[in-house]
Amino acid sequence: MANTPQKQDSTAKPDAEAFNPFTQLQEAGLGNLMGMGTAWVEAISDLGAEVAGFVAERIKEDVKTQHEILHCKNVTELQHVQAQFMQKAIDQYQAETGKLVEMTSKAFAPKTTDS
User: Fold this and answer.
1) What is the pLDDT of residue 44?
2) d(CA 104, CA 52)
3) For 82-108, b where at least 16 C-beta lie within 10 A, e where not — what string?
4) Contact 37, 94 (CB under 8 A)
5) Residue extents of the structural domains in the chain
6) If both were cysteines, with which of 19, 26, 40, 91 could 36 make a disulfide (CB 3.0 to 4.6 Å apart)?
């Protein structure tokens, strides 16, 4: 006779072992992961949106620079376009890094409650 697989009870409680990684993280000092709340999720979402917006702006700059390069008449113009591109990229990356550091600091700053 062939063995038929046993049907699992759909009302069974979840295995405690499934939550073990969360328990280990809490014990490691990360605190209650379930209590991070919507504010933290929103902050991470804002960070993601900021990075995506920055990348989109940088791609626009890349396309603009390629267009300018294609229209250069001599090597001097090409060098000027490339130098402008590099300086603008450096300035934008510095500004974006500062913005992301500030956003991250706010996202992970301990919340104080007013009494």
Assistant:
1) 87
2) 15
3) eeebeeeeeeeeeebeeeeeebeeeee
4) no
5) 38-106
6) 40
pTM: 0.61
Distance CA(105)–CA(47), nearest Å, equals 11
For residues 30-55, one letter each, b for 16 or more C-beta atoms within 10 angstroms of the residue's C-beta and e for the rest, the string is eeeeeeeeeeeeebeeeeeeeeeebe
Distance CA 1, CA 12 (A): 29
Question: Which residues, in sequence order, are CB contacts of 88 under 8 Å at separation 6+?
Answer: 61
Q: What is the pLDDT of residue 47?
A: 92
For the record, the structure tokens of 91 come out as 């300035």
Q: Where are the alpha helices (DSSP H) in 71-115?
A: 75-108
